[in-house]
Amino acid sequence: MIWILFAVFVLTMALGFPIAVSLGVSALSYLVFSDIPLIIIPQRLYSGMDVFVLLSVPGFILAGNLMNGGGITRKIVGFANSVVGHIRGGLGLANIVGSMIFAGISGTAVADSASLGAVLIPAMKDEGYESGFSCAVTASSSTIGPIIPPSLPMIIAGTMTGLSVGRLFIAGAVPGLLLGFGLMGVSYFISVRRGHPKGQWTGFRAIGKNFLSAFWALLMTFIILFGIVGGVFTPTEASIVAAAYALVVGLFIYKGLKLRDLPRILLDSAVTTASIMVLVGLANLFAWILISEGVPQMVASGILSLTTNRFLVLLLINVLLLFVGTFMETISALLILFPVLLRLTTELGIDPIHFAIIAVLNLMIGLTTPPMGVCLFVCSAIGKISLFEISKAIVPFLLVSIGVLMLVTYVPQISLFLPNLLFGVR
User: Fold this and answer.
1) Could you give the CA distance from residue 205 to residue 71 in angstroms, rounded to a whole number?
2) How far is residue 216 from each of residues 82, 134, 142, measured CA to CA in Å?
3) What are the pLDDT digits (tens) for 261-311?
4) Does 373 or 270 have the greater pLDDT score?
5) Do 123 and 81 form a contact (C-beta atoms < 8 A)?
């Protein structure tokens, strides 16, 4: 019966159904042909969504939407440009720095691509940067967002497996910064070779002025991390604090947020949250079927039959996740594959926090991998270029991202140093 599950899942995906629908239809087909009572559907849906830490999802989504509605994006770009804009290819570097800062607000790669891309892609094109380069920088830098905390994929990974969300948040900080600096390096190298423009040095006074302008956005990230690490509040409580903070800052400090905007922002946040929760519930049903059929054990046995070398196993998993990430949305892939692969890697003695960072980083890179990377579609639409053009331009950035992935994979302390330092060795 398991072949019916996979056949229907692949067929519905090929027909263009949303992932949630594909999961639901394939699970229903399996249950019908297996004569399993359909009462299991609402039971599994509810048990998948009835997890306390998932309450943080709507909070962080609402906080990001409130900050975006308050005009925070342009303030972040202004600060980043004042710091690195005077370097050759400075606007490209500002794009990446902006993503590293913006990561603490949105927590999602697609939101990063859309928000920063709408501002920076037209600005870069007006300054004389090639369209392909402008879109490639924006798409590749957007993958930093869900790695540097706060991060929705980290919340999902922790929810499904019982891993500490606080540890996952902190574990993503150094890999995220490493990826950001790596992308800045390749952007600068390309800009020097192509003679991209550079801005004027505006002095430390301008940096200070722009820092003060973006201060409240930076402070939001600090409050979230300090609160979680310091034990002041849980990730769920942190999301509510972030939303309340974003509302006050948007209304009374930046004043870019109007009361008339709140119904639209609340509705958008509710729709996004609902889509994620339905996906989580249906993925829990799908995962229950996989576990019932012993699929995790089959996958583990299949990989271990090829090799028991943990380094080669990690390489095979990286290849699998990079491939899956090219056509499947990040949260969907995590919900389906992460528990299965985590069991395998735990048997090999790989730290689960370390593997979680590897999995999220893999799937983030998949968002910018041709031909189906979601962020490629978003940025190519904003930049008004073909998918082929952005795919060609993103290759150098993709190679650097994969290089960082390999480094994070085979040097565990890159991920584990900070959580072990702050929370103690597990």
Assistant:
1) 22
2) 17, 28, 21
3) 999 999 988 888 888 788 788 888 887 888 788 776 777 778 778 888 888
4) 270
5) no
Average pLDDT over residues 225-231: 74
Of residues 110 and 421, which shows the higher confidence score?
A: 421
Per-residue pLDDT at 107: 52
Euclidean distance between CA atoms 88 and 75, whole angstroms: 22
Give me the phi and psi of 307, to 5 degrees please: -165, 150
Tell me which amino acid residue 417 is.
Answer: F
Q: What backbone phi and psi angles, to 5 degrees, belong to 139?
A: -65, -45
List Cα–Cα distances, 271 to 268, 275, 277, in angstroms.
5, 6, 10
User: Could you give the CA distance from residue 352 to residue 354 in angstroms, rounded to a whole number?
Assistant: 5
Query: Which pLDDT belongs to residue 109?
Result: 67
Instruction: Name the token pair of 156.
Output: 């999902």
- Per-position b or e across 348-363, b if 16+ CB within 10 A of its CB: bebbbbbbbbbbbbbb
Amino acid identity of residue 1, one-letter, is M
Determine phi and psi for 394, rounding to 5 degrees. -85, -5
Q: Has this prediction a pTM greater than 0.85?
A: no
User: Which two tokens mark 142?
Assistant: 């957007």
Three-state DSSP string of the chain: CHHHHHHHHHHHHHCCCCHHHHHHHHHHHHHHHCCCCCCHHHHHHHHHHCCHHHHHHHHHHHHHHHHHHCCHHHHHHHHHHHHHCCCCCHHHHHHHHHHHHHHHHHCCHHHHHHHHHHHHHHHHHHHCCCHHHHHHHHHHHHHHCCCCCCCHHHHHHHHHHCCCHHHHHHHCHHHHHHHHHHHHHHHHHHHHHHCCCCCCCCHHHHHHHHHHHHHHHHHHHHHHHHHHHCCCCCHHHHHHHHHHHHHHHHHHHCCCCCHHHHHHHHHHHHHHHHHHHHHHHHHHHHHHHHHHCCHHHHHHHHHHHHCCCHHHHHHHHHHHHHHHHCCCCHHHHHHHHHHHHHHHHHHCCCCHHHHHHHHHHHHHHHCCCCCCCHHHHHHHHHHCCCHHHHHHHCHHHHHHHHHHHHHHHHCCHHHHHHHHHHHCCC
Chain centre to alpha carbon of residue 40: 31
Taking a C-beta distance cutoff of 8 angstroms, is the pair 111, 375 a contact?
Answer: no
CA distance 148 to 355: 16
CA distance linking residue 84 with residue 224, whole number of Å? 26
Q: Which residue has the higher pLDDT, 56 or 177?
A: 177
